[in-house]
Amino acid sequence: MTDRSRAWPDPAISVVMPVYNGVALLADTLDSLAAQTFGDFEVIVVDDGSTDGTRAMVEAWPDPRVRLVTMPQNGGPVLARNRAVAEARGRYIAALDHDDLCRPERFARQVAYLDAHPATVLLGTGAAFLDDGAVLASGHAPATSPMLIDWLTGIENPLVWSSVMLRTEAARRLAPFMRPERVYAEDFDLYQRIRRLGSLARLDDVLTLYRVHPGGISKQFADRMDDSAVAVLAARHEALFGPHAEVVARLLVRHVAARRAVPDRGTLAMLGRALQAIESDFFATRTCDAADRRLIRHDTARRWRDIGRAGLRSGTLSVTDVLWVRPRRLGRGYRSAGALLWSGMIGRVRRAGINVQPR
User: Fold this and answer.
1) Domain ranges of the chain
2) Which of 5, 198, 284, 341 is 20 to 30 A from 83, comparing alpha carbons?
C-alpha cells in the first residue's frame, strides 16, 4: 500500500473508489475530484488486481490526497469497497466509481446538507448519463423528498451509487458494509439495510455523471443484476406478500426498475395489484404528510404510465388492455387520450413488422 496520508489530519470525507483495469478513464475521474470546491477529502483508490497501468498511475498521481490500497488478488468491487471503508478516516464516506464524474459543487452541497440534517444517514444527488460525450437524463424522479426516496426503495433503485455520501459511523454499523452475496445489486441492498439507521435523501440537482460504456458492469451482467435485485426486494416485501414475495419482486425488477414491457394483460393486472398493495402498506406504516402523499402518488402514476407505454409500443398490450387494467388511483397513466392512442398505433405497426421510431 502506498500511504501518503499519515502526515495529514483526518479529512471530512473519504472517497471510496475500487478500480480494476481503469487506466483509460481514471484520470478524468480524479480530475473531477481535484475540481471540487470543498477540498477536505481523501481518495482511497483500491486497485483490485489490475493488469494495466492503473497502479502506476495512482502511485504517480501528484495530489497527496489520493492514496493507493492494493488487493492481493482480484475479488470484485464489493470486497474492494469494503476494504476502502475499513481504511476510511473521514466522518463521511463518498461513493465514486472510477469511470464516473463529479460536478465541482457536489461535495460542498452534500456536506452542508448532512451537517444540517443529523437524522439523514445517506444522501444521493441527481445524476445524468454520460454516453459518448452526450449528457442524457437518467429517468429517475425529477423531484424528491426523503419520504419519496424511502417509497422508491421498495419498488426500484432510486439512487446512483456514485452520487452517494453517507455517515461513516452508520457505514461501520453494517457488517459487512456491502454483502458479497448481493453482488451487482450491492448498492440497492445497502440502501435497504442502512435505512433502518436513519433517513435517506437526495439532492435533486445533477451533481454526478454516470458514464455509460460497453465495459460497464450493468451492460455485462444484466441477468445477475436482476437476480440480486429480486432477492433484495423479495426480502423487503416478505412480510406483505409471504410466499409470493419473489414473484412480486421479479415483476418490479423487470417492469418497474428495468422498464421492460409486460408480456400480457394478466401480468399488467398482477403488477397493478402489487403496486397498490405496496402503496397501501407504505401509507399505513409511515407518517406521510399531504405533500409526500401527493408526490408518491404522482411519481407512482408516472411509472404506471411508463409501464403501459412500454407494453403498447412493444405490441404486447393493446389500448383496451391498458384501459381495462386501471388500478385505483393510478388511472390509465396518460395525460391525454391522444398519447395513449399514439402508443397503441406504434405497437400495432410493430406487430405488423414495420420499424417505427417513437416520438
Assistant:
1) 13-219, 220-351
2) 198
**What is the grid cell recorded at 264?**
400480457
Q: Of the candidates 82, 14, 78, 73, which has an alpha carbon nearest to the alpha carbon of residue 47?
A: 73
DSSP SS3 for 157: coil
Whole-prediction pTM value?
Answer: 0.89
Q: Tell me whether strands 101-102 and 120-131 are parallel, antiparallel or unpaired.
A: unpaired
| Domain 13-219, CATH among 3.40.50.1370, 3.40.50.620, 3.90.550.10, 3.20.180.20 | 3.90.550.10
Pairing of strands 41-47, 13-19: parallel
Q: Which three cell numbers stand for residue 211?
A: 458514464
Q: Which residue has the cell 437524522?
A: 119
Instruction: Decide: 263 and 316 in contact? Cβ < 8 Å.
Output: yes
Residues 6+ apart with CB under 8 A from 243: none
pLDDT tens digits along 48-92: 999 999 999 999 999 999 999 999 999 999 999 999 999 999 999
